[in-house]
Design goal:
single chain; alpha+beta; two-stranded antiparallel sheet; 5 helices
């Protein structure tokens, strides 16, 4: 492969009847990648513990290069200028409540250059500010509905093995694109 996987190291540890998973991630896109990796590896811990007769306990996630995508030029040129970065940081530090994230988003979109055709939605900063403006919802629960050997479950749709309850996502446009 030309580029190694972002989560590159997994270690399972046994403590009595409990199993923990520690994962190290070399590249961590906080908006698109990390939430998926947390869910994916938490489920991996559950499946491996189930297969080996242990109780899943802790998923420990270590981050190496944490980042957000800032788009491509000309939008990303905003971040090259020291004055822009300082002004953004100053406004960010003054945030008092969730509504202020939306104000910062509007200022940013009005100040930074527009994204060009074909490069839309590669700047994740507006999406992150929108997400920060929302109150966190209650965490959903995953209930196992099918127990089988891991080798069988690998070829099974997750929705045939688990039921998700209490998942009430926000309705908002969060379809950011990867910046290549």
């Amino acid at each position: 492969m030309a580029l190694g996987p972002c989560p590159f190291w997994h270690q399972f540890s046994i403590f009595g009847e409990d199993m923990d998973l520690t994962m190290v991630q070399r590249s961590c896109d906080v908006f698109l990648g990390v939430p998926f990796n947390i869910a994916q590896d938490s489920l991996l811990l559950y499946l491996i513990a189930n297969e080996t007769g242990f109780q899943p306990r802790f998923f420990n996630h270590s981050y190496v290069n944490v980042h957000s995508y800032l788009g491509v030029p000309p939008r990303s040129d905003f971040w090259v200028e020291d004055g822009n970065v300082r002004e953004f940081q100053k406004k960010f530090r003054k945030i008092k409540d969730r509504e202020y994230y939306l104000r910062l988003k509007e200022w940013y979109l009005g100040t930074a250059p527009n994204e060009t055709e074909g490069n839309e939605r590669k700047d994740h900063i507006p999406f992150i500010l929108e997400q920060l403006s929302k109150l966190p919802a209650q965490l959903p629960s995953i209930i196992k509905t099918r127990i089988a050997p891991l080798t069988e479950l690998i070829n099974t749709s997750p929705m045939d093995c688990v039921e998700i309850t209490g998942y009430n996502p926000f309705s908002w446009d969060s379809k950011a694109n990867m910046a290549a």
